[in-house]
Specification:
Layout: H1 7-29, H2 37-45, E1 48-51, E2 56-57, E3 61-63, E4 69-70, H3 72-84, E5 87-90, H4 96-104, E6 110-114, E7 123-125, E8 130-139, E9 155-159, H5 163-171, E10 176-180, H6 183-192, E11 197-200, H7 202-212, E12 217-234, H8 238-250, H9 253-263, H10 275-311
Parallel strand pairs: 1-5, 9-10, 9-11
Antiparallel strand pairs: 2-3, 3-4, 6-12, 7-12, 8-11, 8-12
Helix pairs in contact: 1-10, 3-8
Length: 312
Amino acid sequence: MKQKFTPVFAICAWVAVSLLFAATVAGETMATIELSSEETAWLKDHPVIRHGPDADYAPFEYKDDNNRYIGVAPDTLKLIGKKLGVQFQVVPAPNWAANLENIKQHKADLAAAAITPDRSEYMLFTSPFIEYNNIILVPDHVTGYFILKDFEGKTLAVVQGWAIAEYIQKKHPDIRILWVKDIKSALEAVSDGAADAYLVNRFAAGYWMAKTGITNLRIAGETDYTYKLSFGSRKDWPMLNRLLQKALDAISSSEWEEIFNKWTFSKEPRWRPGSQFWIWITLGVIVVLLLVIGIFVWDLTVRRRAGAKAKV
């Protein structure tokens, strides 16, 4: 007798496909890193790593109104922490220069920073996890398009300790520098006329101009200086640098996309399922599959009993 295709078979097929899809996606998110015995032992001896964050480098790293450090770098460190099984403890500093000094003195273990010759004397760096060119901000009454060379003999606002300072001093020694403590102070210096321009990434500029209410500045060009943000760690711990790089290499493209869309490149927030979502989906599908199998077995048993009675 030809067997009929019942709805039970269709449900089973759908559940099987859904289970396979959920397990595949969840598997990518929950992938682990293979560690050597030496690396595992080091992590066991160092379960807490001290992070020296920048308090005002939004959206890459900054302190929110609840005194929490958020942004691209903290979110990346959260992923690294999960993959390595360590915790990152914040070591606050009054400014960026003091933060670098903490790492130099081993009061902090790592920071998100650009590679410079000076910092390389006391830090080891991972490969960059984000890159961008700095823009030139000038007062909006100043007309024209500029390159960095145009500011020789003029004054640029520069945050104390920032990597671009070394670049300016080396490539354009005739540019005068007005040292400031943070991005807000730099924007105010240009807005008030104390400095002729400020070099910064457009994301940080947009955030701080909106936050401070400064509206009399405009973008007047883009520099040839490409800022590359890496994780720099204390030089006497080469194993930390090795593990950080290993964890960065293990971050999937979808995980990077989620971070960058959240903080940097998306104009509107978009919901994206996280690992917990797929775990619950997988468990739910398994429960449904077991129920469907139970129904199928019950239905088959009833049919066989009915057939047996009919023969009698």
